[in-house]
Amino acid sequence: MVTPETREAMLGALPGLRAFAISLTGNRDAADDLVQDAVLRAWTNLDKFEPGSSMSAWLFTILRNLFFSNYRKSRREVQDPDGCHAGRIGTPPNQGYACEYQELLEALAKLSPVLREALILVGAQGMTYEEAAHVTGVPSGTLKSRVSRARARLAQLLAMDHGNDLSPDQMTQAALQSAS
Q1: Residues 127, 156 within the same domain
Q2: Among 53, 63, 112, 132, which is 20 to 30 Å from 30 by CA?
Q3: Nearest to 180 by CA among 135, 137, 121, 128
């Protein structure tokens, strides 16, 4: 509970806080916002105020620290009052990627296990044909054939013209990784 003396001390400091805030900001509206933020911060941290010390000095310190924190933060922000900069920034829609990703997962599930394994080892894991052949215990030529058939079948399932369209881009990599 706030004592009447604390309340009166806070109210008594307001004119001086406002004048100090105006001197810091150079703008009456920004100063009023700063005073409001400082008083709110002081009110929420009133339990940290040491009785017997100067309420005015404590409030001025809070206001000053808040001003400099806001100043440092504003220096990292881009000023864009007319919205030109924000208008040039955009993110491309990614709904299509989610659908394509799901289609790729479904197509991978339709491959036979040996074809899927060969494609995942070479395409997603980035192994060479020789490394993948060693892992699967088949000759390198057999593994190359499996990868080729897997790419062709995947292209057919996804209605692509050529198996070479399945470059290891990020979407393909992610789908191949999750399928393994």
Answers
A1: yes
A2: 53
A3: 121
